[in-house]
Design brief:
The chain is α/β, with parallel strands linked by helices. It contains 9 helices and 10 strands. The chain binds adenosine-5'-triphosphate (ATP) and nickel (II) ion.
Length: about 280
């Protein structure tokens, strides 16, 4: 948490303990079927995730495993028909949903997957200046913030369609971090990007974490994530099944069968392609 925002703690008392600590997070949805029969859907059955300051924590798992829900739960953004149990502690304090919602956009930034977040009809400069103002900073900080992410001043006058996918991602990171967050929850920030752009975006997260903050990186790009992450949390069917050191993948030290399956499914890792069936 930023010192002057909530705790009043100043830099001279170094923070102890993780920035984010999620324990036994369970999320169910109540649905009413025809005839008004109530049905409970267990979407998260027991998720655990810890992010220390200075860390990039990759969160991986199949589609539908519950990664986005976890991020939304942290920000207190679950839909009204969701029930949440377990604990989410931020900076050493267990916070209820309204308290977490208050941190959204300031201490905690969500980097959404969709680039629809950008207005196609407004220049990048206008949009980043708006983010600056919303974060309580002068609009004139926009150019400097873009420059810090490797985007030159010429980007200010361009429209989203005039930028490459990698540049767009960097603009989104710039906008999400205008409020000077301590924690970024990045929900699949690199879909469809060429490998070089993926590496550049992930490197931005690495630098952010190296400055004493933390990143939870939700991704399907396991190999790229292993290059920047300090820990990898593997989830399956709404549960954390393993929390692993990135090296344990290549060194064959993973313990959970699903974690090994993820690794083995990567191309060049023995992915077995079934023989073509005669037709
Ligand atoms: N509003 C909702 N009502 C009922 N079930 C939901 C709701 N939102 C999400 N779910 C269910 O929760 C589960 C987890 O979804 P989530 O979007 O978190 O998965 P994910 O791991 O982010 O997947 P992906 O990799 O495809 O983004 C899914 O089975 C999904 O159908
Ligand atoms: Ni998702």
């Amino acid at each position: 948490m930023n010192p002057d925002r909530r705790t009043g703690r100043r830099d001279e008392s170094p923070p102890v303990g993780p920035l984010l600590s999620i324990t036994g997070l369970r999320v169910t949805f109540t649905q009413y079927t025809r005839g008004l029969r109530r049905r409970e859907i267990v979407a998260l059955a027991g998720m655990d995730l810890t992010a220390e300051r200075g860390q990039v924590v990759a969160l991986v798992g199949a589609s539908g495993a519950g990664k986005t829900l976890l991020a939304h739960a942290v920000l207190g953004m679950l839909p009204p028909n969701a029930t949440e149990t377990g604990t989410i502690a931020y900076d050493g304090t267990v916070l209820d949903t309204p308290a977490r919602r208050q941190l959204a956009g300031t201490d905690i930034a969500l980097l959404p997957q969709s680039i629809d977040y950008l207005d196609p009809l407004a220049t990048i400069g206008r949009q980043v200046r708006r983010s600056a103002r919303l974060a309580g900073r002068p609009s004139s900080d926009a150019a400097e913030a873009l420059e810090a992410r490797g985007l030159g001043r010429e980007v200010l006058g361009r429209y989203p369609h005039e930028l490459s996918g990698g540049m767009i991602r960097r603009v989104l990171v710039t906008m999400a971090t205008m409020g000077d967050p301590e924690l970024i929850l990045a929900d699949e920030p690199t879909p469809g990007l060429p490998a070089a752009d993926v590496a550049a975006v992930l490197q931005d997260f690495r630098s952010f974490a190296d400055a004493g903050r933390a990143v939870v990186l939700i991704t399907h790009e396991l190999r790229a994530a292993l290059a920047v992450a300090d820990t990898v949390v593997i989830c399956h069917d709404g549960r954390t099944v393993e929390t692993a050191d990135p090296r344990s993948f290549a060194e064959d030290r993973l313990t959970h069968p699903y974690a090994r399956l993820l690794w083995n499914a990567l191309p060049a890792n023995g992915l077995i392609v079934p023989e073509a069936q005669p037709c």
